[in-house]
Write a structure and sequence with these properties.
The protein is of the alpha+beta class and 406 residues long. Helices cover 16% and strands 29% of the residues. It binds adenosine monophosphate and magnesium ion (MG).
């Protein structure tokens, strides 16, 4: 029986497990997912220091003339103690001396030879950066399941970490099925068709951080399909398109089943893309998408993206949505759980017209998609919708409402 969209996503969230791990230099870790919590081994800042170029002072000396004969630079290790009636010049980042109660910025004083006139308003701890106010020793500064970006690397480097443990890169294998298909780099006859799905999934999977292998299109026979499958079983994910409907030569599912596929999701209540199948052979996850390009793309974005996120160990593996509004009226056939591709300009969602399952051109315009329930036949301009972005990743650590409640 067909699964609903939400059942299919639940089953992905519950069944797919992360790939194993490796240790890599932090400089190479952008986009990778950390496998454990990282705990700070020391405070950041490591010591109380000055947030400004200025003067280390006592609060009691506010609005007084004090003497100043010493300077502390960043990188110094000062041993003196600040006494009432005096100030010590100090640079940004330099450790504050013993007895210092506040820093007064250079801009706020008047200086004459060795005498400094301090302002009347000096608050305790002003412009002092306290040890541990940024990262506290013993606290988690990078949590398990986070996708590393340049700013996480700043935290790792600030803790003196040279390497980080991450999930390894997911290996994806892709092939298309269909006697009518030719690779895009070969000569084509009038009755034939270029395989546009496989290069599309190859590049999209690379986009999403996978290591991808594309093998030649399989002919529509059980023997050819089984040979293609055999040569890809070392992958973490196999993505196929075509041969999953009820045509006489639709052997994809049979071929995978012959090689031991356990079916997890057998068809999904979605338009377009109902024949989609998800299964496993040992630890390899298999997704058979329909051949129609736009139908396969929609199902890739909804289900394979979720599989990749979960497999990569991400905490935020659920789809996130952006709440926006329809920018014009759009009528739909109704009666099905359906997907509408559209453009998003930052303020409103504009459905792409036309968008048919067999088309290629609408896909390149799509910034996101919305999901609608069978009762919807009209999306009026101004109606609030939940868009699942395609052109960028917007994810969630918890399940959020995916359908647009029109
Ligand atoms: P199928 O799912 O095999 O019945 O294919 C449905 C439609 O999608 C047919 O018109 C196919 O020619 C087309 N199609 C199948 N695979 C691809 C592909 N890899 N690239 C482009 N079109 C395809
Ligand atoms: Mg076919």
């Amino acid at each position: 029986m067909a699964s609903s969209i939400l059942e299919a996503l639940d089953s992905i969230a519950q069944t797919i497990t992360p790939v194993d791990q490796e240790i890599i230099p932090i400089e190479h870790s952008v986009g990778r997912v950390v496998t454990e919590d990282y705990i700070a081994t020391f405070d950041l800042p490591r010591f109380n220091n000055s947030a400004m170029d200025g003067y280390a002072v006592k609060v009691a000396d506010a609005n007084k003339e004090v003497t100043c004969s010493e300077v502390i630079y960043a990188g110094d290790n000062p041993t003196m103690t600040l006494q009432e009636g005096s100030a010590i010049k100090i640079m940004t980042g330099a450790p504050i001396p013993q007895g210092c109660e506040a820093i007064v910025p250079i801009e706020d004083v008047t200086v004459q030879n060795d005498t400094v006139h301090l302002p009347s308003d000096i608050k305790k701890n002003n412009f002092i950066r306290m040890a541990g106010e940024d990262i506290k020793k013993g606290s988690v500064f990078l949590s398990k399941g986070t996708v590393i970006n340049a700013y996480h690397i700043a935290s790792l480097a600030s803790q003196g970490m040279t390497h980080v443990t991450v999930h390894r890169i997911i290996k994806v294998a892709i092939f298309g099925t269909g006697d009518e298909l030719r690779p895009h780099f070969e000569k084509i006859e009038a009755h034939q068709l270029y395989n546009s799905n496989s290069p599309m999934f190859l590049t999209r999977s690379k986009d999403l951080g996978c290591d991808v292998r594309f093998i030649r299109t399989s002919a529509d026979t059980l023997e050819a399909l089984e040979a293609s499958i055999q040569s890809t079983l070392d992958a973490d994910i196999i993505i196929t398109s075509g041969g999953v409907s009820v045509g006489d030569k639709d052997f994809t599912k049979e071929a995978f089943t012959n090689l031991g596929m356990q079916v997890l999701i057998d068809k999904i209540d979605i338009k377009p893309g109902r024949p989609t199948i998800v299964g496993t052979i040992d630890r390899t996850v298999i997704i058979n998408l329909p051949g129609n390009p736009l139908a396969s793309m929609v199902n890739y974005e909804l289900f394979i993206r979720a599989i990749i996120r979960k497999m990569s160990g991400r905490r935020d593996h659920y789809h996130g949505t952006i709440s926006t509004v329809m920018n014009n009226d759009f009528s739909v056939r109704g009666g099905k759980y359906a997907v509408v591709l559209g453009k998003f300009d930052g303020t409103a969602f504009e459905p792409i017209k036309p968008q048919m399952p067999g088309m290629v051109s609408p896909m390149q315009e799509a910034d996101g998609l919305i999901l609608i329930t069978p009762d919807v036949t009209m999306l009026n301009s101004g109606t609030q919708v939940n868009m699942i972005p395609i052109k960028w990743e917007f994810c969630s650590e918890v399940k959020v409402e995916l359908f647009s409640d029109c």
